Amino acid sequence: MPPSAPVPDLTDHLGYWLRFVSNHVSQAFARKVEAHDVTVAEWVLLRQLWDEDALAPSRLAERMGMTKGAISKLAERLIAKSLLVRAADLGDARAQTLALTPAARALVPELAALADVNDSEFFDHLAPDDRAALLRILRGIVEKRGLKSPPVE
């Protein structure tokens, strides 16, 4: 049997380090929002609606890179938590829209502050130039690879 090429260590791969950091950042944030009875996916949906009066579930699905069925399940959970309302679309009686409730309008800024705290906990040690470079590099990868769906889990 011919000798095989050396196998690089896991830690030789950038993907390993991205996943390592991402998992810890994501898990810490999930714990923070779960203390408010919200999942990360629910937070992303709530934040998507923050700047809107109402959106069709299909539009949310496009923005979040999810299926309409997955959006429906998330919406049902948020409706049950009194954070979302479903209404008939004024422009099309057959269609529906989703909108934040007043309780959700009060909660979204709190959750956004938790996201800021989480970022600070993991990235405040970076010099401003390093932080800007990391953000530029990550956004460049997203653009180059055509990545569309925001991370929800």
Describe this structure in words.
The chain has 153 residues and is mostly helical. It has a single domain, classed as Arc Repressor Mutant, subunit A (Orthogonal Bundle). Helix content is 61%, strand content 10%. It has a two-stranded antiparallel ribbon with strand order 1-2. β1 (84-89) and β2 (92-100) form a beta hairpin. The longest helix has 22 residues, at 102-123.
Quick overview:
The protein is mainly alpha-helical and 153 residues long. The chain has helices spanning 14-34, 40-50, 57-64, 68-80, 102-123, 128-145, and strands at residues 84-89, 92-100. It has a single domain (13-145), classed as Winged helix-like DNA-binding domain superfamily/Winged helix DNA-binding domain (Arc Repressor Mutant, subunit A, Orthogonal Bundle), CATH 1.10.10.
**Number of helical segments with 4 or more residues:** 6
- How much helical structure, as a percent, in the residues? 55-70%
CATH architecture: Orthogonal Bundle
* Shape annotation: globular
Layout of SSEs?
Blueprint: H1 14-34, H2 40-50, H3 57-64, H4 68-80, E1 84-89, E2 92-100, H5 102-123, H6 128-145
Antiparallel strand pairs: 1-2
Helix pairs in contact: 1-5, 2-5, 3-4
Structural descriptors:
globular, 153 residues, single chain, Arc Repressor Mutant, subunit A, 10% strand, 6 helices, mainly alpha
